[in-house]
Structures are given as C-alpha cells and as structure tokens.
Amino acid sequence: MSDPMHACDVVIIGAGPAGVSAALSLKDRGFRPLLVDRADSVAATWRSRYDRLKLNTGRQFSHLPGRPYPQGTPLFPTRDDVVDHLDRHAHEDGIDILLNTAVTRIDRNHRGWRLTTSDGDLNASQVVVATGYLHTPVVPQWPGTFSGDLMHSSEYRNPTPYKGKRVLVVGSGSSGMEIASDLSTGAAEKVWLSVRTPPNLLPRNGPVGLPNDVISIPLYHLPARIADRIAASARRQAFGDLSAFGLPLPTDGPFARAHRLHVAPSILDAEVIDAVRDKAVEIVSAVTAFDHDHVVLSDGSRIPADTVICATGYRPNLAELVGHLGVLTPQGLPTAQAPTPAARGLYFHGLLSRPSLIGYVAKQSRALARRICAWA
Question: Across all residues in the chain, what is the average pLDDT?
C-alpha cells in the first residue's frame, strides 16, 4: 500500500462495526480514509467471541451503510456472519487499512492531529475514534485468593474445556446468561449464575416472529415509563414470572435503565430461560470474596467452583488515548458523539449503548461523513 497519509486526510481508529461504517460512508463521498487497528484483522473483537454468539438484532437493522447482508443470512446473524460482513466491506476499493498498529495517543499539531502509534506517527486533519464501547474487559478485584481458574467472558469459546467442572458465571447480561446456558449443555458438572442486580429480560423474537428490535427501536424514543410497561408485558408473555428462580422483575425497567445507566437489557432465546427453569443453571447471589477453592456470596453461602467466568463487562478505556484533551466526561466517556465533534476535527463514533447499535452507527456514519466533507 502506498503511504496512506499522502492519499487521505482522515484516520479512523478501530476496524469494528463503527469504524468500518465510517470508512464506507467516507468512501461513498469520495474520500479515501485510513482504517487503523491494533489487531491483525478486521473485526478482531467479533472473531474472538464465543461460538454460539448471534446478534440480538435482526439482519435488516444490523448491516453496514447501504450494504445489506447477502441472501440466505439468518434473521439473527451469527458471529461468523458479522465477521464476514465487516471483513468483506472493509476491503472494498477506496479504503486503506493499516493493521497490527496500536494508536496510543492523540495530540493536536499544526495539521490538526498527530497520532502516536506502535509504527511511528501519523498526521491527519480529521480523526474518528471508533475503538468501541466494549473495548477493555473488566474483572472485579474481589478480596481473597482463588485457587481455581479465573477468566473474563471474552476468553470463553464453547463448553468443551469445562466437561466435568463446576463453573460459576458472574453477571446476568446477555453474554453471561447465554454462556451459563451453553455450559449447561456441555457436560459441566454444575453451573451457577451469580446475579447482583436482577436483569431486565427481553425475548430475542418479538411479536409474530419479528426480531425484538422492531419494537425496541421505537420504544427507545418513548417516555421510559410507557416503554417499560410495554417491555414488562412482553417479558411476562415470553418468560412468565421468574421470581421463584432468582430473577424477579427489576425496579428499573429496561428503558429507564438504558437512559440512566447506559445498561442494555438481556435479550435471550427461550432456551436460556428454560435452563434456569430446569435448574440446569442455578441462580445465586453476588460474589463478595474468594476463599481458596470456594467463592463467598453475599448471602453468606460458599460455592466450590473450579472455574469462575466473569461476564462483568468492559470499559471504553479512552483516558490514555485522549484524556489530556478535555474531551471526556468524569466517567471516561466522550463529551460528544459523532456526527458532533468533541473538538474540531476529532470525533467519537459508536462509543455508546443503545438498541440496534450496528444499524445506528451505520446511519450516523453517513451524517459523520457529511460533517467531515463540509470541514475538509
């Protein structure tokens, strides 16, 4: 590849859904963007997710801008469908890609921005940070020591390595609940799911077989009190009352929690809830400490786990990259999301949680490209 900075003035950091969407929308407007990623492939985070993963949203709401999935793609695209989709379109003519290159810091300079990378400096007049809301895995630091295996859910692939083991999954988001269900089908001796805050549960399939996002997207724009009543009715119809199994209805509904805390509901297939009802997955209280070969819970009970899998989330981890620029909130999130710039020529794209995120960032990438074009 020729020197990309002689060919294009826009650098996009991150070759996931948001970054690839931005690159395509810029390409469609006649730019030749440079897409930079620390990994050795496009969609690296998606490639590393667990085997049974599929989107919580339907394919019609989850594709790149102007580029639907190919005919025959399932209603809910699988991990591999998403990877193929991103990889194929990221390599369209008109986009330069620089892999195995970590951007460690962004600073202002005479041209606009200087990016310090593992391969030397890049200069650009406009920069799009699309490193992902789910960037750096978080594992809580519980007191005590644990003699078993402790890992983040990002390391989990399938149940095969856990045959005959007693496994505690911590966290009741979509990933935690799906992994617990997956383990229960793979000959694990025992599976527990630790729940600190009762999750908001929604069925992956909505009315008459439509994907959940057909309803959740418009509900997101309604007052939360109205949207949450509708969501509670959908939950009851799909899953019934799960209080006896340790999953009561939360005080905050899914949309109130989404707007206030930026926390997504747990969107699940019925088989995951069936595993809870059948007690193939046992719901237990929050983890408070380790005691060698046991995990101590908030109700005082102790679990003799061989493995603890932490489905405890991620953080954007932007402080080292841009923390000195005054573009982050006290919580470490961008002060503005694309297409609004956080500083002149500096955009944050896709670093948020909301329904149908892939489709949303695809739509926003078009507005972002228009803004960059106007300022070029």
Answer: 92
